[in-house]
Amino acid sequence: ATSVSEGVLEPASSRVTAERRHLTVLFCDLVGSTALAARLDPEDMGRVIRAFQECCADVVRRWDGHIARYMGDGMLAYFGWPRAHEDDAERAVRAGLELTAVVASLGRDHGSVHAARVGIATGLVMVGDLIGEGAAQEETVVGETPNLAARLQAMATPGSVVIAEGTQRLVGGLFEYVNLGAQDLKGFGSPVHAWRVIGEGGAESRFEALHGGALATLVGREAEIGLLLDRWERAREGEGQVVLLSGEPGIGKSRIVRALRERLADQHHTPLAHYCSPYHTDSALYPVIRLLERAAEFTGDDDAPARLVKLEGLLSRGTEALGEAVPLVAALLGIDAGARYPAPTLSPQRLKQRTFELLVDQVEGLAATAPVLAVYEDLHWVDPTTLELLDLLIERVERLRVLVLTTFRPEFNAPWTGYSHVLQLPLSRLARRHRQALVAALTDGKPLPEEVLDQIVAKTDGVPLFVEELTKTVLESGLLRDA
Asked: What is the bridge-based pairing of β-strands 402-408 and 422-426?
């Protein structure tokens, strides 16, 4: 195949002023197209290339990236320009994995073997320069990042996605990898660390995946933790509670949830963790289904009968009415229970209503045995069906030993503020002294130069995530001095 780096690795003369952007660049190449062209009629080869390009367009569009150009059997895409997202690196990796799968299926559709290879890198670039003339005029990216993505694509094996260390650091435990170690790449003076992405990571939540066990000390949130513990005690005594924990990105919502779980670790209770996803806002009951799958401990090797047995064991913890509960929940999870349970004969509306009732009954049954901490994270990404189910749970929870803890960003309009058992808990930014304490915790108490500390405190504006990231950047720069 023609190298996708041809024609894009050389600096282009700028026609307009470009802007500096933090960008994730993806190169995708159709493997073996030269050999394929040698044995196919030109018209057939043209159809293959068009089908490949259509696949690329569909996938990149789905992940809200931008296709900069096609180069015959290659494609260059940007994630983070012209539209930027907080998760552009993740979007690029997910697009890369989907591209390798879709192109492989494309080959089967055409009666031949096709494979794509993908390289991805993230970094600071100059973007927006115009090259070419007339209709062929396009924006380009100048910098080391596209060069690196192209070289990683060239070293990738067919059907694989290889990413640079900068990208891997951003996506963390969201994916599983093979560490390819330091690679000598053409045009780079020192070895470059590369990783091959092999699939979805096993972390329970986005917060766990992106932060792992390396969490900074929680500072400035003693009042919020105290309020949560007070509501938990009320719930333990049978006065069900709901807490609406809200705040902007990076303000520490998930960190507070983690802190509460740590405080309750020695108490007998049942945790139920639901995680909404930015990529499944239209998938009915997505966080509920994922919770059930995790709780039942399904594995990829389980067939339908094995999953059914595990589901029965799970549901038996909260109900004795397995004859009705199992077929309804099995249908929700896509498990064929027909060999052992009669198929539900309810109308679609009644089926939905009864499934909701059974799921809430399950929580009530669990609460009869032990207090329940039901967490719903990132409700700004909730699907409408899960929101309906949560409405029903919040209506009934007042008389149960249950604390429902929700987290969301300010743009989500929580509809439950009128209930007496609901507490609104918006998170404010950290005070200056708390920012300083967080920096001290991150540096293990060793001092930074006073002017550097002042800049961190001022520039991060009280957002804990920003304090952590900027402090770590300073530490990596070597400005830390021994006390």
From this structure: unpaired
* Residue-wise DSSP of 79-108: ESSSS--TTHHHHHHHHHHHHHHHHHHHHH
- Give the residue numbers spanning the domain of 459: 432-476
Which residue type does 24 have?
A: T
Q: How many CA atoms lie within 13 A of 399 on its CB side?
A: 5
Cis status of the peptide bond prior to 327, with omega within 30 of 0? no
Q: How many domains does the chain have?
A: 3
What's the order of all strands across the beta sheet hosting 402-408? 270-275, 372-377, 402-408, 241-246, 422-426
Do 297 and 382 reside in the same domain of the chain? yes
Q: What is the pLDDT of residues 178-232, one digit of tens each?
A: 999 999 898 888 899 999 999 988 777 787 777 765 667 889 999 999 999 999 9
**Domain boundary at 202, 226, 261, which?**
202
Do 146 and 232 lie in a common domain? no
> In this structure, are 421 and 448 located in the same domain?
no
What beta strand segments (E) does 184-269 contain?
Answer: 192-200, 241-246
Domain-located, residue 141 = yes
Indicate the average pLDDT of the chain: 88
Domain co-membership, 467 together with 340 = no
- Cite the DSSP H helix spans in 64-217: 88-109, 144-155, 165-171, 206-211
Quick check: helix, strand or coil at residue 33? helix
Amino acid at 223: A
Mapped onto helix, strand or coil, the DSSP state of residue 112 is coil
How far is the C-alpha of 363 from the C-alpha of 374, rounded, in Å?
9
CATH label of the domain that carries residue 274: 3.40.50.300
Q: At what angle do helices 253-263 and 222-236 cross, to 10 degrees?
A: 50
- Within a domain: 439: yes
Are 247 and 351 in contact, with CB atoms under 8 Å apart?
no
In a domain, 346, yes or no: yes
Task: Give pLDDT, residue 443.
Answer: 87
Task: Judge whether 438 and 218 are in contact, CB under 8 Å.
Answer: no
Other C-beta atoms closer than 10 Å to the C-beta of 187 total 11
Distance (Å, rounded) from C-alpha 77 to C-alpha 146?
10
Which pLDDT belongs to residue 42? 79
Residues 190 and 228 in one domain: no
How distant is the alpha carbon of residue 142 from its chain centre?
28
**Total-model pTM:** 0.82
Within a domain: residue 6? no
| pLDDT tops 60 at residue 132 | no
Closest to 406 in 3D by CA, of 392, 422, 428 = 422
Contact 456, 474 (CB under 8 A): yes
Instruction: Kindly tell me the burial class for residue 125, based on how many C-beta atoms sit within 10 Å of its own C-beta (0-12, 13-18, 19 or more).
Output: buried
Distance CA 77, CA 73 (A): 14
Question: Who wins on pLDDT, 32 or 231?
Answer: 231
User: Are 468 and 408 part of one and the same domain?
Assistant: no
